[in-house]
């Protein structure tokens, strides 16, 4: 029997476990830990949990979230966020975060705004190498989008 299971979506109820999993993983990376002056991992987890519901609900049209759960502990031990091309919005809905009421969205937006997420600002250029890598590896042509549009959009509905 497998000890881990992939769940095809994350819900706003997962936020504390997701925050603990994700922030603990990032905390292992020295470059990321250096961004937080005099801030404990527990504080970062707490503030990440306040921000997480808003993040899970942002861009629901094209964002998909998955988690991996350890059967023995019930803990989340893995997380992935996928951003699909807009043409794929109607696809893979089982990995979409379930929507919540407008009242809950307002609560989550307020929590997000009130959470402390202030990283160091005294290291200009610190992540320039990451931005350069992303630019270098970003697609220059919409191959996937064009292919998916041909598959998903009937030819009678396509723009010429």
Please give a handful of descriptors for the protein shown:
single chain, 160 residues, alpha+beta, three-stranded antiparallel sheet, globular, Acetyltransferase (GNAT) family domain-containing protein
Question: How is this structure best described in words?
Answer:
This is Acetyltransferase (GNAT) family domain-containing protein. This protein has 160 residues and is an alpha+beta fold. Helix content is 42%, strand content 12%. It has helices at 15-27, 30-33, 41-57, 102-114, 128-137, 143-152; strands at 4-7, 63-70, 76-83. Helix 1 (15-27) crosses helix 3. The chain is globular. The termini are far apart.
Class derived from helix and strand content: alpha+beta
Instruction: From the alpha carbons, calculate the radius of gyration and give it in angstroms.
Output: 19 Å
Largest sheet: 3 strands, antiparallel
Percentage of residues in strands: 5-15%
Number of helices: 6
Strands of the widest sheet, in order across it, are 1-2-3
**SSE pattern:** EHHHEEHHH
Helix content: 40-55%
Q: What is the averaged pLDDT score?
A: 88
Overall body shape: globular
The figure for the number of domains is: 1
Instruction: State the total count of DSSP E strands.
Output: 3
Organism: Penicillium cosmopolitanum
Protein name: Acetyltransferase (GNAT) family domain-containing protein
């Amino acid at each position: 029997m497998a000890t881990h299971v992939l769940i095809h979506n994350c819900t706003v109820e997962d936020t504390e476990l997701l925050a603990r999993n994700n922030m603990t993983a990032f905390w292992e990376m020295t470059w990321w830990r250096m961004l937080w002056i005099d801030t404990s991992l527990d504080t970062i987890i707490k503030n990440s949990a306040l921000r997480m519901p808003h993040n899970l609900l942002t861009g629901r049209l094209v964002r998909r979230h998955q988690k991996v759960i350890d059967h023995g502990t019930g803990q989340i031990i893995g997380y992935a966020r996928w951003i699909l091309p807009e043409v794929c919005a109607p696809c893979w809905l089982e990995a979409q975060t379930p929507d919540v009421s407008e009242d809950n969205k307002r609560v989550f937006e307020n929590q997000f705004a009130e959470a402390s997420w202030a990283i160091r600002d005294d290291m200009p250029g610190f992540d320039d190498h990451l931005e350069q890598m992303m630019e270098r590896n970003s697609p220059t042509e919409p191959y996937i989008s064009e292919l998916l549009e041909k598959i998903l959009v009937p030819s009678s509905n396509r723009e010429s």
